[in-house]
């Protein structure tokens, strides 16, 4: 074993380090394995030079194999991105490497966009698009929740948020069952959450039918919570801070389970908080029936 470790150190010095950087950390396991192979070769009375050459050849072969696999995976990722980009462009949407830029103009556009492995995408170049009137603080903080539609689905929630609207008491248990509520346990916990359009931590609204939808755990947390926390942190920093906030569930036609949620936020007077994003209502390993919210494990 000691011989193998010594040979391993020698190999690291002899190898082209640039080539080493091109592969994933798993190559270290290959190095260790080949080091032990070298130790075995030496223990079989092969000369050190022969053992070293033999081991270096084996290691280079492993490195090339790993590099090729890595390249194939990158090609696969690029192909997936191209497929998503092609589909998105038909809807007036373009994609970036991390979050995608989107110029979709309405609910129907977003509802027709299929999930392709990227749960959060940006809309309208991530620009919230609020007007000067929308950002006015003349009337102080406020909140408004759109009426339920003819299928009892939540429609939209808007607010001019301020520290004064944030609750000071712990949230009570939710009892409202929004449309599409067919919950069940999966390996990671409960499939669905009763998801607030405007998070409880921002306004204190809880069992409000107009502010709740059925959302997967991954959409609600970390999906929406990540962006809600940005707003909450900004509001907590000063009682003078305001954030214009708008959240709408995106339904396709008469489906009862939302396809996703669009969130827009803009801090007033600066860009400390500024986003326009869409989160797909999906859960890894589960196929959802958006017509009624039922589901099956993949």
TrEMBL record:
The keyword Thylakoid does not apply. Keywords: Coiled coil, Membrane, Transmembrane, Transmembrane helix. Signal peptide: none annotated. Residues 49-90 form a coiled coil. InterPro entries: DNA/RNA_non-sp_Endonuclease_sf (IPR044929), Endonuclea_NS_2 (IPR044927). The chain crosses the membrane at residues 27-43. It comes from Ligilactobacillus agilis. Residues 139-268 form the Type VII secretion system protein EssD-like domain. This is DNA-entry nuclease. The keyword Coiled coil applies.
